[in-house]
């Protein structure tokens, strides 16, 4: 079976890294299509995949987008793929339009969140229309969470039953062997020593882009309040700022760099080391497709706090594997941070339930097999 997986930037392949390996082992001929980047070359080399580099603009650019569509049409017709499977919004739109001119290929798209969910006005309406177009033009569409499907149906972007979700959700599952705290028995000691902390301190972790959409302004504001209540609570931030795309306000940036109990660690290719060292995760995001980082943390034995939005409602079982708070309510977020910080028994109980659920329902092995089964069903061909 000949398969093309298409995303806007190669880093978006990170969540299907195991799936790519599984596809190749199963005998599939896999090509990765994305904008140029070092990570794409890394995946190509480690998985024996082919790589087709195409400049795909993240923002709307009519001329650039038309050029990309024409190049995709030419490439897809030449390669004669059995399946073209896109994810990320721009890649999904370009593939869907190109698919009109590429017969005998099954086009699939997976929704992993909606950028328009936090927008207002004409741009929101335009992006919603483009998502409707993607659904109409593709042979099959998936979402990585059931709550995201309900959201798309409620917003009249998709009809009931038009989008499906594999198993219990997530984009590609998580590698439970990688995200295993047993691999890092000294992680907490090493992190505390490096940051000048006590091992009895309570380490609150954030992993993701440091942007407004990820709720970082709310998180920092809530942490400042929680830290005044209990000075043992420390905030560890893992990720990159995106000043051009979604900048934080200057007050938040200054607090991140100047507050004595906030520790900005930048980007790490091994977040599992931090999951193994900290006490709980917080993701007060304004939009998510699923919230894979929640399940990665859970696999390492961390409960999480998240906002009650599509995606995170699937990733966190409220009151069991973590806590859900109302979107944008800093006081409620502060209260939940303090609750988990104070109650070690509750943290440990939630940690165990979260870990059991992650390993049972979201392993990459399980999700990869289900995805290949879907490919076989859609094409009528064995891998």
Automatic annotation (TrEMBL):
It holds the Pfam family Glyco_transf_4. Gene3D superfamilies: Glycogen Phosphorylase B. GO terms for molecular function: glycosyltransferase activity. Residues 193-355 form the Glycosyl transferase family domain. InterPro entries: Glyco_trans_1 (IPR001296), Glyco_trans_4-like_N (IPR028098). Residues 14-137 form the Glycosyltransferase subfamily 4-like N-terminal domain. It comes from the Bacteria. This is Uncharacterized protein. It comes from Pseudobdellovibrio exovorus JSS.
């Amino acid at each position: 079976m000949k398969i093309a997986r298409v995303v806007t930037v190669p880093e978006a392949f990170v969540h299907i890294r195991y799936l790519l390996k599984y596809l190749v082992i199963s005998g599939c001929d896999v090509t990765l299509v994305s904008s140029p980047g070092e990570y794409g070359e890394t995946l190509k080399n480690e998985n024996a995949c082919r790589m087709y580099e195409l400049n795909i603009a993240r923002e709307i650019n009519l001329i650039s987008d038309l050029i990309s569509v024409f190049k995709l049409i030419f490439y897809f017709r030449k390669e004669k793929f059995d399946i073209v499977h896109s994810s990320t919004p721009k890649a999904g739109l370009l593939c869907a339009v190109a698919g009109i001119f590429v017969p005998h290929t099954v086009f699939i798209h997976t929704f992993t969140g909606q950028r328009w969910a936090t927008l207002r006005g004409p741009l929101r309406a335009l992006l919603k229309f483009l998502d409707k177009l993607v659904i109409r033009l593709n042979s099959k569409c998936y979402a990585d969470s059931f709550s995201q499907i309900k959201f798309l149906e409620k917003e009249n972007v998709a009809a009931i039953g038009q989008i499906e979700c594999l198993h219990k959700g997530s984009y590609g599952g998580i590698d439970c062997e990688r995200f295993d705290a047993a691999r890092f028995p000294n992680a907490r000691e090493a992190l505390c020593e490096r940051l000048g902390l006590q091992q009895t301190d309570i380490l609150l972790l954030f992993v993701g882009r440091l942007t407004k959409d990820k709720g970082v302004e709310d998180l920092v504001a809530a942490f400042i309040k929680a830290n005044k209540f209990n000075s043992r609570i420390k905030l560890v931030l893992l990720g990159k700022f995106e000043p051009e795309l979604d900048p934080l306000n200057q007050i938040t940036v200054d607090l991140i760099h100047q507050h004595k109990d906030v520790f900005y660690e930048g980007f790490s290719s091994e977040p599992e080391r931090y999951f193994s060292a900290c006490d709980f995760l917080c993701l007060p995001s304004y939009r998510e497709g699923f919230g894979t980082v929640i399940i990665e943390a859970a696999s390492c034995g961390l409960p999480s706090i998240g906002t009650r939005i599509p995606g995170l409602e699937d990733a966190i079982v409220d009151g069991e594997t973590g806590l859900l708070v109302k979107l944008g309510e800093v006081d409620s977020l502060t209260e939940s941070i303090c609750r988990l910080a104070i109650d070690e028994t509750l943290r440990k109980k939630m940690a165990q339930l979260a870990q059991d659920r992650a390993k049972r329902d979201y392993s990459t092995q399980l999700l990869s097999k289900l995805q290949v089964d879907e490919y076989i069903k859609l094409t009528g061909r064995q891998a």
